[in-house]
Structure formats: structure tokens, C-alpha cells
Amino acid sequence: MNVAYLKSLFLTHKESSLHHRYITNLKIEPLLNDLEKKIDVHTLGKSVLGKPIYALKIGKGEKRILMWSQMHGNESTTTKALFDLLNTLLDKNTALNSILKACTLYIIPILNPDGAEAYTRVNANAVDLNRDAQDLSQPESKVLRGVFNHFKPHFCYNLHGQRTIFSAGKTNKSATVSFLAPAQDKNCTITANRKIAMEVIGVMNKVLQNIIPNQVGVYDDAFNLNCVGDTFQSENVPTILFEAGHFKGDYAREITREYIYMTMLKSLEYIANNKVDGSLYKPYFDIPENEKCFFDVIIRNAKTSDNRVEDIAIMYHEKLIDGKIEFIPKIEKIEKLTGFYGHKEFDANNLVVLDLQGEGVKVGNENDFVMIDNSKIALF
């Protein structure tokens, strides 16, 4: 599948009922009700607060792929892309039957429904499920582990979302999509198992370089057996971390959603139609490691109250307000920010930056607007 065909498939099959960042069980249940007429849809278990954890099974092939999203409740971009993917695979006119013939997909669209509803990273017991792979202290962790043990996947897709701070290397290029073939031992050995995951990531990166060149990163592979990906990799199941990141201006993550969809579909096609043995793993090492080089906004050359000239860094803090995600600009740093970039930048030209009350801005302040030379500047 070339890029043009992937794009056309996305436009045709994008699930219009899912949009923006707040995706919960309530949003996906009507879709699941419709899908259960076509594929296996069932409840795996319950969350801490008793919400159902749903699963879908599609395909009849021997290659088994386990995919889970919203392990962190506020990371919903990959969930949207999963439903776009399902729409595509169920359309008999797409000529993608080879995937369902070769593969069986087991999909958990929202592993952490309590966190999704509260729009938090953690579950209702304030536990990060991605650090609970060994203790299995939470019902959601036990659900995932149970599926892993029963389904016995050949591949795992660990689907996440990342903050706007990440760059692809030490550059002014945002890491719009990131990957990782997690380590499976403390020495981060490049095992045969990891090579298989790396090969698939290399295929996905090749597609993305045609669309968002130099905007793909990989994470540091420091080993932590408490993490789910590291645990599954250590048990010799090739595991791929997907991270949906930031594209300029795309705070709703609708553009990134398309890129995640394209990578998932391309990777499934590759797995379905090839014997993936890890021999083509080396392109993985062409992908730069993620760095933290971005703020949402930087105001350059701002004069402070003691006549220093500094830069002002602003980050957006996501808050759930009346069922909608709002982005609240907050001053993070006032200092020289050499080597850092803003997704949006302003130049204060050595003038004082004030809040709307006429006071100088301070670290920790939440400001929707600032004043520069009597001009009102919107920070979002």
C-alpha cells in the first residue's frame, strides 16, 4: 500500500463519531453495539469502579496480534485510529482480505475506562497500569495479562499518546509519531525477538518519512520489567510501542490520528504478507531518539522586572471541564531557552510581558492572554 492509497482509505473509513481528545466507554459503546453484529465483541472484565473493559476479535489467521489502547486514560488518539482501522478491515471493497486471512487481531480499545472518564493517566486507584506488569495489583492489569496468557500473541501493539514536549532528536522537529522496540533484559541486548519488532517499526517509519520527514522518534530503551512492553518482550513476544504525538496546531490529535492509522494498517499488511524474522532490523537505528526540546509557546526576548532579558516558556495543561478538554496555558520557565523551541513563538523585542491586570508574568501563573506593548496576545 502506498501513501496515497493509505490516505484514501483513511478518508473513507474515519469514524466520524469519535473526535478530539475525550474518548470514553460512553463514546465507543454505540460503535461496539453495531460491531457485534459483524465480529466478536465481548466484555473481558471490570475496572476498579466496575466499568466494563471491552474487547474485539477479528480475523481468522494464524498470526495473532494483541492490541490495547488507553492503558493511560488520557491517551486516546490510538483508540480513535483503532476504530478507523476496524471500519477499513470490515469493508469488503478495500481488497485487504489478506490481513484477516493471515492474522487474528485481539483489540482492547480502552483498557483503563475509569482513567478515560476522569481523563487521567492513572486508574481509579491512582496506579499507573504501565508500571504494574509484575505486581498485577489492579483489575485492569490482570485483564490484560489474562488475555496475553490465553491468546498467546505473536505480536503486541502497545498503543499510547505522548506529550507535546518531545522532539525527534535535538531538533526543532516535533516527534509526531514515536516507536520503541522495548528491551527485554538489563543490558538492552538486541535480541532476535527485538529485531522482529524493529523490522516492523522500520517499515512503518519508511511510510511516515514520505509524509512527515524527520518527525519520527524512538524512545530510550532503558529496561524496566515493571513496564508492560518490557515484560511481554522479555517473554519473547515481539512488542511494539506506538506513541501518538504532536503535529503543529493539532491539539485535537486528528492529524496524528491519521498517521497512527496508516502505520497500523501498513504494519498489519507487512506482517500478513511476509515472514518477519528480524533480518531487516537495521533501519530502526536510523530513527533519532526522542528529546524534550519543545514547549507549547515561547515568548522570546522578554524584559523582566529587574531589567534582564529572558525567554518565557508556556505549557498547556489539559483539564476536563464540562465534558470537554480545555487547554490552560501555564508559565513554566522564565530564563534563556537556547536549544528549546516553541510550537508557537512570539518575540517581545526586549519589552516587558504583562498579564491582563498589568502585572509581570510569573512562573506558575495561568494566562490565556498576555500584553506586549499594549497588544493583547492570545496564548492558545
Automatic annotation (TrEMBL):
Keyword Cell cycle: no
Family to which this protein belongs: Belongs to the peptidase M14 family.
Domain Peptidase M14: from-to ranges: 11-271
Organism ancestry: Bacteria, Pseudomonadati, Bacteroidota, Flavobacteriia, Flavobacteriales
A GO molecular-function annotation: metallocarboxypeptidase activity
Entry keyword Protease: yes
Alphabetical list of SMART domains matching this protein: Zn_pept
GO cellular component: extracellular space
UniProt protein name: M14 family zinc carboxypeptidase
BP GO annotations: proteolysis
Source organism (scientific name): Hwangdonia lutea
